[in-house]
Amino acid sequence: MTSPFTRNNRPHGRVGPYMRIGELARLTDVSTRLLRYYEQQGLLHSERTSGGYREYGANAQVRVRQIRGLLAAGLSTRVIAEILPCATGPLPALEACPDLLATLRAELADLDGRIDTLTRSRDALAAYLATARLAAAPATVPYAA
User: Fold this and answer.
1) What Rg value do the Cα atoms of the chain yield, rounded?
2) pLDDT tens track for 46-71
3) Contact 81, 43 (CB under 8 A)
4) Which of 36, 118, 129, 138 has its CA 20 to 30 A from that of 80?
């Protein structure tokens, strides 16, 4: 299998591994539109060729997996931008960085609050449903002999 990276002398003097956005999208199963969004949010970085194409370094694939993992944990891109420097490996593992624990605790407390709100909403909706079922049930007349 060939590597997605190529060593090539670039017109602007850069030499080394690179990959274009389409290849990164294919390798990570993330759309090019989403990769551009991650870049816009400061989560992913690329260099531009003289022709304007985005080129990503060898660590971009791992970085995208880190972003996806942190998004799956319910974190916003704003929070991810804060804690991404602490991420290592594709899962990611988080190293102890300044303010990391405080940020994660605040996010967890916010998530717990949203879960509580959703639980109360669900309970209220279930109560309305139970009331509606009773109102819709046909009236039964006791059997008279």
Assistant:
1) 25
2) 999 899 999 999 899 999 999 999 99
3) yes
4) 118
